[in-house]
Amino acid sequence: MVSRYREVYEAWQRDPQAFWAAAAGGIDWYTPWTQVFDAKAGVYGRWFPGATCNVCHNAVDRHLETRPGQAALIYDSPVTGSRGEWSYTELLAEVQAMAAVLADHGVTKGDRVVLYMPMVPEAVFAMLACARLGAVHSVVFGGFAAAELATRIDDARPKLVVSASCGIEPSRVVAYKPLLDHAIELARHKPDACLILQRPQLAATLVEGRDADLGALVTAARDAGREVPCVPVAATDPLYVLYTSGTTGQPKGVVRDCGGHMVTLKWSMSAIYGLEPGEVFFTASDVGWVVGHSYIVYGPLLHGCTTVLFEGKPVGTPDAGTFWRIVAEYGVAALFTAPTAFRAIKKEDPEGKKIGDYDLSGFRTLFLAGERADPDTVQWAERILGVPVVDHWWQTETGWPIAANPAGLGLLPVKYGSPTVAMPGYAVEVVDDGGHPVAPGTLSNIVIKLPLPPGCLPTLWGDDERFRSGYLDDFPGFYKTSDAGYVDEDGYLFIMSRTDDIINVAGHRLSTGSMEGVLSAHPAVAECAVIGVADALKGQVPCGLVVLKSGVDRPTADIERELVERVREQIGPVAAFKLAITVERLPKTRSGKILRATIRQLADGEPPRVPATIDDAAVLPEIETALRGRGLAKPVP
Ligand code: COA
Ligand code: AMP
């Protein structure tokens, strides 16, 4: 099939408003928009002002006419040995019961609800129930610790928290409730109530007067046949706030609106992912990340697909064939995960032998995102699966792909290491620090011309100013992606690294600045630097170099152990911070700036680029020796 990509991209370029107005035809609106795009509203303009809609209606209710008995949600949990399936009709009943419980606790339009949940169906029901009521959900990933949860509670100021007694990791049962209790203790804002899903693996103690048993309440509401109508909201009203790592360590509340978000997700399901309504989409991520929001929950349901919610890991639950089992059992047409999952599978089953156990004949495309997809992994996946592998690039902020190889429009030739080309909606440019376009092949800042398309963040929660200063001020007229890369002569994008302190660990976005904050708060630490070092499985892992205060005479190994524990306790296990190394001093410029990039190059076994402004180059061999002592400073295979 000849790709229609150029034709479609040019149609968008010719008339962006007509393009998105046509795409909006795929959505049910209560009242139409007064303008497709109002350039004067909001920080850089707003999409579909004047329109009213409800996301839950579009994701659930409206499919009852055409596909009432079709599976909407499949839950597959090898870690608990359970599974379940809900048709669109059954999903509506669950969501109405959940919405009734939230409404009974006073949740109304515009209220925030924090969801701190493992990968259970109730997480999806709760997200949709919030949408139904016009409330704003904020899902916090379960691998974050109490302090991170507390920061999010303080920023979102939720009326309610919905959580569970525990999450299940292959190695342990993670008690969520003590983390939640501690977070509420730490937070200045106190939610009115916490609704706790008691899981059989570990019961939580409920705090009297504040906590309630979610399961019991939902069962009662369901048995009573409670019906809760969809609340019409403005297309520009927020659907959710999702916090993501920011450069200062204070997470940024990415706001997603209702209308534009539905339009672009629905459009992407067919144009980018190449799926028809009724087909099965399996996104192996977590509802705590943007990939989970967009392509476990909203995208597939808005499109009338069946979505798979997987509580497990690509390996070890029970083996490297788990993904293939799911694809075969449920007739999955497309799988979306992070490259790190495939590196994990490749390590366990290098020949892909497990695939032979399953019938994957209905499987068409593998999508990878969340971190750079290394060519080795992409080619390996192509070889073992025999289907196209699409690397695509996006961010929490955009909510849907900026660049992809659009399966639904017809695939373009693949260039390994490139997520292919900009999608309609995105005018991507590579510019120098002064904002001037650079020649093809030149590595520099990647920016997107304003306005951003529908579905991208209109602002940060309660902080227009931080949105402007963090994303819009450096390159006037453009959105700064904070990714560096280049475009080649054919317009293919190559995304190489971040320009800020963010690192990407197993597809999880983390701020080294916030880890430095934890390390420097230790009483023995004088100064520190956290860098992301290359890792064959996780892409990057953090490594902290610390200089101790003079006079500290405790064994360095003890202090290093405490530092590792502190990051785990204060940020969470997801940070995967396992390496603290004591050094005598850190390399700096004459003005005192720590040379983190130079340390990273040393750690990765690359020839370090040493700036002329280095204060004392003699420190570099010292650092290299310290890194070597921990198995670093050599190239990663
Ligand atoms: N709740 C509590 N703890 C969690 C958690 C959760 N939801 N998710 C992860 N953790 C913990 C893990 O148990 C682990 O703890 P440990 O240090 O005690 O072992 C730690 O956080 C790091 O987790 P993770 O990065 O997932 O590493 P892993 O070694 O458990 O698994 C992979 C490695 C590659 C298999 C795993 O990262 C993976 O499946 N990645 C898929 C990519 C993905 O989902 N990306 C999201 C964006 S698309
Ligand atoms: P997140 O907001 O967690 O989705 O992380 C977004 C960041 O992950 C981007 O800014 C990139 O740095 C990185 N990223 C995501 N997808 C890709 C990709 N396909 N190639 C390279 N980097 C990616």
Which terms summarize this structure?
637 residues; alpha/beta; Rossmann fold; GMP Synthetase, Chain A, domain 3; seven-stranded mixed beta sheet; five-stranded parallel beta sheet; 31% helix; globular; binds coenzyme A; binds adenosine monophosphate
Quick overview:
Helices cover 31% and strands 23% of the residues.
Provide a descriptive summary of the structure in words.
- With 637 residues, the protein is of the alpha/beta class.
- It has 2 domains: 5-312 and 392-485, 3-Layer(aba) Sandwich (Rossmann fold), CATH 3.40.50.12780; 506-628, ANL, C-terminal domain (GMP Synthetase, Chain A, domain 3, 2-Layer Sandwich), CATH 3.30.300.
- The chain is built from 19 helices and 31 strands.
- A 7-stranded mixed sheet has the order 5-4-17-16-18-19-20, sandwiched between helices.
- The radius of gyration is 24 Å and the shape is globular.
Task: Look at the structure and give the mean pLDDT.
Answer: 97
CATH architecture descriptor of the largest domain: 3-Layer(aba) Sandwich
Number of separate helices: 19
Helical fraction equals: 25-40%
In total, the number of strands is 31
CATH topology-level fold name of the largest domain: Rossmann fold
List the helices and strands and how they pair.
Blueprint: H1 5-14, H2 16-23, E1 37-38, E2 46-47, E3 52-53, H3 55-61, H4 63-66, E4 71-77, E5 82-87, H5 88-104, E6 112-116, H6 121-133, E7 136-140, H7 146-156, E8 160-164, E9 166-169, E10 172-175, H8 176-186, E11 193-197, E12 211-213, H9 214-223, E13 233-234, E14 238-244, E15 252-257, H10 259-271, E16 280-283, H11 290-302, E17 306-310, H12 322-330, E18 332-337, H13 339-348, E19 365-368, H14 375-385, E20 389-391, E21 403-404, E22 421-422, E23 428-431, E24 444-449, H15 464-472, E25 478-487, E26 493-498, E27 502-505, E28 508-511, H16 512-520, E29 525-535, E30 539-548, H17 556-570, E31 580-582, H18 596-603, H19 619-628
Parallel strand pairs: 4-17, 6-7, 6-8, 8-11, 11-12, 16-17, 16-18, 18-19, 19-20, 30-31
Antiparallel strand pairs: 1-2, 3-13, 4-5, 9-10, 14-15, 21-22, 23-24, 24-25, 25-26, 27-28, 29-30
Helix pairs in contact: 1-2, 3-6, 3-11, 5-6, 5-9, 7-8, 10-11, 13-14
Bound molecules: coenzyme A and adenosine monophosphate.
Residues 244, 290, 369-373, 391-393, 395-396, 419, 483, 495, 498, 504, 509 line the site of adenosine monophosphate (AMP).
